[in-house]
Amino acid sequence: MIRMTEPSKINSSQNVPDHQPAAGGIAARARASVGPKYLTGLNPEQRDAVETLDGPVLVLAGAGTGKTRVLTTRIAHILSQGRARPAEILSVTFTNKAAREMKHRLGQMLGQAVEGMPWLGTFHSIGGRILRTHAELAQLKSNFTVLDTDDQVRLLKQLLQADNIDDKRWPARMLAGLIDGWKNRGLTPSQVPPGEAAVFANGKGGKLYASYQERLKILNAADFGDLLLEDIRIFREHPDILRQYQQRFKFILVDEYQDTNVAQYLWLRLLSQAPSKPAAQAAIPERVEDSNPDSPSESDNTHRPEMTERAAIAAASAGPTKNICCVGDDDQSIYGWRGAEVDNILRFDHDFPGAKVIRLERNYRSTGHILAAASHLIAHNEGRLGKTLRTEDQDGEKVTVTGSWDSEEEARGIGEEIEQIQRQGEKLNEVAILVRASYQMREFEDRFVTLGLPYRVIGGPRFYERAEIRDALAYLRVINSPADDLAFERIVNVPKRGLGDATVQMLHDHARKRRIPLFEAARAVVETDELKPKARGSLRDVVTQFDRWRAQREVTAHTDLAQIVLDESGYTEMWQKDRSADAAGRLENLKELVRSMEEFENLQGFLEHISLVMDRDSGADEDAVSLMTLHSAKGLEFDNVFLPGWEEGLFPSQRTLDEQGRAGLEEERRLGHVGLTRARRRAKIYFATNRRIHGTWSTTIPSRFLDELPAANVEITESKGGSAWGGTGGYGASRFDDMEAFGSTYSTPGWQRAQANRNRGQANGQGRNGGGGRGGFEEEASNFSSTSSSGPDFGSFSSRRRGPMTIEGELVAKSTGTTSEFSLSDRVFHQKFGYGRVTKIDGNKLTIAFDKAGEKKVVDSFVQRA
DNA sequence: TCTTCTCTGCTTTTT
DNA sequence: GCAGAGAAGA
Fold first, then answer.
1. A591 is a catalytic site residue
2. Tell me, in Å, how far CA of A755 is from C1' of B9?
3. CA separation (Å) from A359 to A58, A66, A383, A612?
4. Where is the signal peptide (predicted)?
5. Structural domains in chain A?
6. What is the pLDDT of residues A103-123, one digit of tens each?
7. Which nucleotide's C1' is closest to A613 (Cα)?
């Protein structure tokens, strides 16, 4: 059953029941042009993963083992073997980026754009597509709106208010999280275990979930969870519909299977059963609820509800499994906190009997030392499927571990190392800083701004989550669907029209009484004298404007309409008048939005897809350092990877440890593994003894993960910014312990913290006086922005460093050659800090008093005349 | 109704 | 240390 090579099929097209021209094009081309060529260059395991087409297959693909290549080659293989047409392959990913990447690579492999793969996409876009087809079975219309988190929360807030629940004690955001969690686990309101439903607002949680669902139907809206959950419900209530899809999808491929949640699992599971006639079920005895000793959370009661759910689905759909191929890596499962079930991958062969498991263990990315360090670290986890990554690459440089006195010094040191890398002629695009929490980024941003080092932040608010984009979309949503109350409410007073809370409340009352949408209520209220003349006038304007735009919609291209709406509503003007730093960027984003609409046929089509498909693009062409969280680094790779902040509490995160215990620790460890395996040639780890978190300094101890790294592959180095302990390396009581300040082998955190505190003054002195040779302009500049005192504990520390260093800094700064084209009190603009005035000039380094950001020192090339 | 001031409470993030 | 929300003033 392994190799299905039937040579006759390759050249004869009559075996393919192929009547669709587009589909035939790709399939034919695949057969003709690819031949066996696509198989060359694959290692034996990869080849096995590509060629095992029948029955369930799990490909355990470690970091850097060619996962995407296997997936795309497998699709090419299926097509070239004539086993399915492009429209018969369901191929799901988690992110749009991954879906795009696959389409791109497939296109390259098959030599053309892959328009014929209609079912290649994210779980949510495909789920949404299925739901639109059968919307009426979920009490929706096919043009339903997909709500994002913000809309969701606002809707819940209204429900809480209506129920007189204290929004302070029981925040809407928390309820949104709970509902999300339930949906991730495939639970409809009636299926939520009563105990869990009761935890919110003294037992009202379940009821609120139910009324939220009701409201969604009235608004003709679905949230992200519904896109899958409603599909599942439809599949189960209408076996004929399910069978239709089961028959259609001859092959199913799943990327990043370790990240699937229970709902996704159920969805896949239903689709992956061979279509069986309702009555005749060749029930394979399957005991999904069996305890599996390998799976860590098995004994955990909290998983019971969905386990029974799982069992029910398994029983109902027990039939031969089709050709499903899941690719994933249990060691890279880092989304447990948002509902991903590592269990799904751990028990794959259990869920899909007869599954073939193929391990890809040859790493093509990292050098020996890096791989060894990563493997050794992850080996501390229990509950793995177990893989041993190997490379045929050289050992390369050892992974470095560097301790520094505080987080500022850490940033300074990394900045210097990056400059060094740059001097060696390497590209900044090949440098990444991966942090655990986004608040760590700031320090680096400040540093890079000072150094004039180009960087880009990856992640952060997505394009369509930006306020200006959501506002613009809200206008379009109201035009498209007058019943969209959430959208109407969002923009009725944006820009300011004198229609505040009081007016909106009044509209709500009116709308509820007559059971009409807010927009219609507004139309009616304008005709009465319930509102003050001023508010009434503005509201009338709003209503007439929307009526006009809707009329124009028939005769105007949707992109033009969007532009007209933005201009006539005064929205563009609002941002043009805004003098804050990011106003220009927002206007740029609005332009980008209008541009992106061109890809869609009409307004309707655009709105249907926007929330699912829209992505930010972070100008990747420019050579710049990448700054991102460990989470968003998954799937990326760089020559040089910097990993700062390996300290207890930060990494592993204390909160994860508190909330998830052992499972949390293991997930954090996997995060470390992901971080290390991003590096091709150099991986550099850092920790600081003192870190400012939320404004206050606290003393930290090195991460336990440092102790879990293999000594043979790791080199302990001194901070380039000057060692915290006057030259001794090492960090705290660990087996690397060769350090005087903390010289002891006691290792309880409390003891270490006590030691750290006791030694602080002493170490401080050493750092300042004995550290010598540090400082210079950079030293002074980075302190410059910290205007307020750092709290009583460190008062002496701060003042001490600020005094003499400033003088030193000035001296160095004055010696920098070039003179600036700016003069004192020039008005300037800076991308990050906004508008300000030059207060001091030192060569090409300016001190600027920013209107909003305070006083900063920056290189003149980073500002322009305002 | 809009602006300014005080208070709180902080991961990770895709769709 | 700062953003975001809510309450008090203009």
1. no
2. 29
3. 8, 11, 17, 32
4. none
5. 39-140+221-275+320-360 (3.40.50.300), 145-219 (1.10.10.160), 368-454+623-718 (3.40.50.300), 463-614 (1.10.486.10), 826-865 (no CATH)
6. 988 988 887 655 678 999 999
7. B15
